[in-house]
Amino acid sequence: MRGRFITLEGVDGAGKSTHVEWIAHWLCERGVDLCLSREPGGTPLGEKLRELLLDPAQQVDADAEALLMFAARKQHLAQVIVPALERGQWVLCDRFTDATFAYQGGGRGIAASRLAILEQWVQGSLQPDLTLYFDVPVEIARARLMATRALDRFEQEQASFFERVRTGYLERARSDPARIRVVDSTQSIEDVRAAIAGSLTQLWARA
Q: Please, is 136 exposed, middle or buried when counting C-beta atoms within 10 Å of its C-beta (0-12, 13-18, 19+)?
């Protein structure tokens, strides 16, 4: 029986990393055989591309950036995601194609129609069974980032870039509300996790 595919999305600083281990624990407690991964990355090739894409010293053309994201994704699908799903494992992935539509589409201004061609080429009809989008105002996300670590190439972008990214995410969520669940990440950790548990329970019931 095919496994389930869950993705986590949000602007940098939205709080995904705060909850990913909790989600993994919630699933494993219920007997789920879980594969945990991330994008860009998830494979040796993907991790090398991740290093380049996040390196503040790199100057990357917007189209090249999108192509590198999809190149890493194709390897990730072939080497990790699809085999895991076919084995019956559930896959929990920090970011997937919604991030490309938000960052390279909304943020960089690449037309969604061009990204959709790459999406179809790289993943065909495969989509996550559930996407949890952690939504937070950009000023809150920026404050969280500044307080935690040195910023990578994306995190160093201006607030206006992240406003466009957030808009891209929200447009994506409106276009597919059955799959993409918007989680208000300004709430307390307890309330956020209650919302997450509600969505996971619904997916679990359909499994």
A: buried
Tell me the torsion sign for CA atoms 95, 172, 200, 73: negative
Structure tokens at 75: 């390897």
Rounded CA gap, 8 and 99, in Å?
9
Residues 148-187: pLDDT tens digits?
A: 777 889 989 999 999 999 999 999 999 999 999 999 999 9
Show Cβ contacts of residue 148 under 8 Å, excluding neighbours closer than 6 positions: none
How far, in Å, are 114, 169, 190 from residue 158 at the CA level? Answer: 24, 17, 31
Burial of 44 (0-12, 13-18, 19+ CB in 10 A): exposed
